[in-house]
């Protein structure tokens, strides 16, 4: 899209009252260039930089990334990644071959070329991910060995010495999480079970950071011994983290120069590494999951640990306890690295749905679970009574315990108690100078009363995913007309089908006319001509998709988000929730995305933003059309130009 269109889009967004226009894109999906790609995307690559320049020219004000923690070789889900360590699969390798770059020539160009050439063409996404893990490990090993060799030279270059100084400062600043995370790798390798500590959970090494009473001195001694014996492995782990953290800093600077805010993802789950390190913070008898809901009627047993409420504050309320100190450390790090945060499943911070651990049938267990703080007298969960914030008379027993209205009333003091962890997010964001609107709450089909009260206290909105709207229910939460100014609205997200695939399903199921009638009411305020507009939408699926996008901009929501597949016209699904499939988390923007995007634009099969914005402005009626006549003419011209490829 020509740079001249950027100001046009910005002008249209302002006219529509939209203050945030954000692209959602996870790390593995970024495009690479043919000479740098080892099978997985990275936001720090040159291919990513070119795509983000395109996003800037589309007028985006922000980029929503997924969780960026370290994943394992067997589980690519970013929502199971580490909380402090960054994913070293994101280290862009090409910059490490540049002798004039900030890291010098740590990696040979020949090694990079060989790794790129070995990317498997067949075998599916699982094979490419495995190859990326192996290739990245080999490349980073060579980079580390080069660094050690060059650092030891008597005539080490000045640039290398500067790199070493930055590395030393990084290690010192982040020692509190670097050393435990590195020791997890050391211990896993020595026991032959990398990434899985369950087989040695009962050993002293399994509880180094949560020793039993009387074991504290032995555990501390063993930590010191391991740090001494494995000093090089620990330092190498820190070096890899140093590289990925520095490259993230480069991205932040580049994004800021382009006027793009970076949003991080505050995942609700814990990786095996973090569970091992922080097992002393968790309830042993319960796990966290998702209750039955409209999106997942059966519920989901996530197998995530639950933070112990009795460790939120210190004894007798004398200050923050271990849990709140952990939250402060996690949020402080994240907000030093991002301009805002998406809170993944915020009910997990406010009123988590818990189920008994160790059950033979986890799905049945999660279906019979309960809310941690809203279960004062359940006969099947008597252990939860000690954590209850509500009294029995504050419950509506006519509803299922997972229903939004299970709790029917709360006092301000009770809302404050529900908000203890959530308040940490809001407070830390404010301390780092973040705006209220830069805290995003991923509330989808369920909004328990407890969570609604906590969010309302801070003036925070929810997500409205319009592809899920019930067109027969005027009060449905996903309909655009029900969005509030503080909400975030989108046609889909990383857990939904691409809108382009969905519209094909609507066509096959004869559902286009219902969608067209709804969109005609939203976008064509005058009765005269509305029926003709609806017929046009019903017979032109591509135009109907553009109208579905325009519907977002006619709502009262000031923040609009689009997932990359919906933007580019890609019909594939990024993640199917609740499923184990090697295709999950693997969808990528191809190398030749610019050509494919233009071809789809020409066929009306990708987001034509000027066309969409013009549709939304015209939905304001005759007065709006007169007020914005010049802007509409320029948007129409830009839309035609994009479709023709001029």
UniProtKB/TrEMBL annotation:
Keywords: Carbohydrate metabolism, Glycosyltransferase, Transferase. Coiled coil: none annotated. It is an enzyme of class 2 (transferase). Its EC number is 2.4.1.25. InterPro entries: GH, Glyco_hydro_77. One of its GO terms (biological process) is carbohydrate metabolic process. It holds the Pfam family Glyco_hydro_77. GO terms for molecular function: 4-alpha-glucanotransferase activity. It catalyses: Transfers a segment of a (1->4)-alpha-D-glucan to a new position in an acceptor, which may be glucose or a (1->4)-alpha-D-glucan. Gene3D superfamilies: Glycosidases. Transmembrane segments: none annotated. Belongs to the disproportionating enzyme family. This is 4-alpha-glucanotransferase.
């Amino acid at each position: 899209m020509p740079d001249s269109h950027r100001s046009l889009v910005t002008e249209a967004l302002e006219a529509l009252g939209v203050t945030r226009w954000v692209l959602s894109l996870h790390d593995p999906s970024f495009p690479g260039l043919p000479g740098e790609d080892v099978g997985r995307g990275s936001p720090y690559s040159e291919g990513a930089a070119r795509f983000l320049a395109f996003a800037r020219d589309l007028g985006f004000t922000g980029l929503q990334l997924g969780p960026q923690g370290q994943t394992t070789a067997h589980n690519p889900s970013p929502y199971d990644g580490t909380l402090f360590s960054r994913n070293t699969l994101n280290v862009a390798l090409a910059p490490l071959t540049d002798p004039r770059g900030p890291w010098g020539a740590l990696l040979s160009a020949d090694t990079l070329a060989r790794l790129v050439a070995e990317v498997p063409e067949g075998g599916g996404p699982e094979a490419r991910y495995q190859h990326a893990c192996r290739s990245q490990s080999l490349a980073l090993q060579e980079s580390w060995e080069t660094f050690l060799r060059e650092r030891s030279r008597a005539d080490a270059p000045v640039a290398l010495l500067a790199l070493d100084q930055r590395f030393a400062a990084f290690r010192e600043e982040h020692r509190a999480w670097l050393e435990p995370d590195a020791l997890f790798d050391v211990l896993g390798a020595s026991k032959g079970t990398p990434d899985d500590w369950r087989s040695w959970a009962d050993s002293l090494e399994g509880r180094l950071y949560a020793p039993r009473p009387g074991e504290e001195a032995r555990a501390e001694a063993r930590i010191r011994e391991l740090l001494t014996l494995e000093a090089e492995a620990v330092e190498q782990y820190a070096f890899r983290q140093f590289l990925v953290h520095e490259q993230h800093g480069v991205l932040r600077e580049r994004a800021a120069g382009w006027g793009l805010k970076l949003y991080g993802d505050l995942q609700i789950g814990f990786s095996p590494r973090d569970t091992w390190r922080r097992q002393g913070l968790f309830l042993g008898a319960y796990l966290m999951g998702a209750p039955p809901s409209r999106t997942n009627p059966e519920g989901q047993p996530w197998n995530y640990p639950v933070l112990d409420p009795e460790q939120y504050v210190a004894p007798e309320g004398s200050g923050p306890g271990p849990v709140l100190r952990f939250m402060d450390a996690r949020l402080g790090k994240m907000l030093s690295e991002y301009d805002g945060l998406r809170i993944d499943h915020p009910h997990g911070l406010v009123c988590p749905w818990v189920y008994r651990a160790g059950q033979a049938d986890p799905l049945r267990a999660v279906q019979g679970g309960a809310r941690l703080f809203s279960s004062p007298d359940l006969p099947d969960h008597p252990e939860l009574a000690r954590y209850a914030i509500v009294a029995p008379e504050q419950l509506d027993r006519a509803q299922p315990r997972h229903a939004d209205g299970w709790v029917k009333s709360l006092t301000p003091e009770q809302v404050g108690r529900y908000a203890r962890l959530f308040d940490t997010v809001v407070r830390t964001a404010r301390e780092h100078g973040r705006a209220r609107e830069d805290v995003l709450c991923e509330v989808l089909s369920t909004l328990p009363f407890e969570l609604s009260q906590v969010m309302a206290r801070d003036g925070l909105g929810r997500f409205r995913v319009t592809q899920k709207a019930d067109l027969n229910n005027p009060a449905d939460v996903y309909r655009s007309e029900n969005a509030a100014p503080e909400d975030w609205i989108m046609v889909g997200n990383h857990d939904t089908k691409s809108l382009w695939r969905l519209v094909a399903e609507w066509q096959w199921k004869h559902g286009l006319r219902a969608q067209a009638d709804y969109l005609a009411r939203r976008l064509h305020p005058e009765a005269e001509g509305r029926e003709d507009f609806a017929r046009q939408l019903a017979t032109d699926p591509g135009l109907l998709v553009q109208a579905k996008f325009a519907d977002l901009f006619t709502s009262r929501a000031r923040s609009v988000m689009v997932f990359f597949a919906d933007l580019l016209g890609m019909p594939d699904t990024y993640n199917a929730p609740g499923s184990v499939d090697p295709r999950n988390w693997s969808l990528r923007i191809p190398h030749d995305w610019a050509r494919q995007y233009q071809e789809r634009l020409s066929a009306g099969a990708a987001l034509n933003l000027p066309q969409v914005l013009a549709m939304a402005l015209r939905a304001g009626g005759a007065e709006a059309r007169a007020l914005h006549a010049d802007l509409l003419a320029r948007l129409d011209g830009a839309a035609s130009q994009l479709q023709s490829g001029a």
